[in-house]
Design a protein that fits this description.
The strands form 3 sheets. Strands 4-6-7-8-9-10-11-12 form an 8-stranded parallel beta sheet, with no helix packed on it. Strand 11, helix 7 and strand 12 form a beta-alpha-beta unit. Helix 2 packs parallel to helix 3. By secondary structure, the protein is α/β, with parallel strands linked by helices.
């Protein structure tokens, strides 16, 4: 057939090779890949989906251990192509159509066991609370996670606790920044009524993070003097985490 060619295997069987496979560039020694597509403030954001499809459709990076993408219009299928089971660090910022749930499903499909996950959700995404209870939601992929940073996501407290519990105490750095469905007590939550799905349970939160060295709670819903006092008391009662070295409580309602 035009546009395809045949390759014989060791057993003598012919296998059809697509043009995409023929043209793929194999970068077997590439370990880290960063791509920042942020435009200047004066420049209107434009789609770069064609570039992403060409880039990740025609390169093979089997040894990649770190991937850092910012404002890249990469599809779910193309992100799968970029990942491999050896990936340890994944940083995604403002990627259209990406959520915590969709990223977790992709990681499951590829078989990644990350050590660091950093994700800032795109402001343009539809606001839907994520409870991490969908099909094919195997959170054991987070069992080696040491660093977790979530910013502007719609992960609920239930969803967060599932992820934290799946780390089995390996987490050393936790950063929660302006997440719309996480609250440290009852009160206004983005002008919507707070539900029990949004309230972080202090006891479970502390129990899941015995080895934290860095805790960053920035611009969190209803994080005030009362909730800080309650969280501190829970830490003292459980006598953990004992190795906190950095604490950031910026931009909260503290007196």
């Amino acid at each position: 057939r035009p546009g395809r060619r045949l390759q014989c295997s060791a057993a003598g069987h012919a296998r059809s090779i697509s043009p995409e496979e023929t043209l793929k560039i194999r970068l077997s020694k590439l370990k880290r890949l960063s791509l920042n597509m942020v435009h200047s403030v004066r420049t209107q954001r434009q789609s770069n989906s064609v570039l992403m499809k060409q880039l990740f459709g025609y390169i093979d990076v089997p040894s990649l251990v770190s991937l850092d993408l910012t404002e890249c219009d990469i599809s779910h299928s193309d992100l799968r192509k970029a990942l491999n089971p050896n990936l340890k660090i994944l940083k995604l910022q403002k990627i259209p159509q990406m959520t915590v749930t969709s990223i977790t499903i992709i990681l499951n499909d590829v078989g990644c066991n990350l050590e660091e996950l950093s994700f800032m959700q795109d402001d343009l995404e539809r606001i839907v609370p994520e409870h991490m209870d969908g099909q094919n939601m195997d959170l054991s992929i987070f069992r080696n996670l040491h660093v977790l940073q979530l910013e502007k996501t719609y992960l609920s407290a239930i969803g967060l606790m599932k992820i934290l519990a799946s780390t089995h105490g390996t987490l050393e750095k936790l950063s929660l920044i302006s997440n719309g469905q996480l609250a440290f007590g009852y009160g206004p939550l983005n002008n919507r009524v707070i539900t029990t799905f949004s309230i972080i349970p202090y006891h479970d939160f502390v129990t899941c993070c015995p080895n934290l060295k860095l805790l960053s709670l920035v611009q969190c819903c209803n994080l005030d003097d009362h909730s800080i006092s309650a969280l501190s008391k829970e830490m003292m009662d459980q006598e953990q985490p004992r190795n906190i070295q950095e604490l950031d409580l910026s931009y909260n309602n503290l007196c």
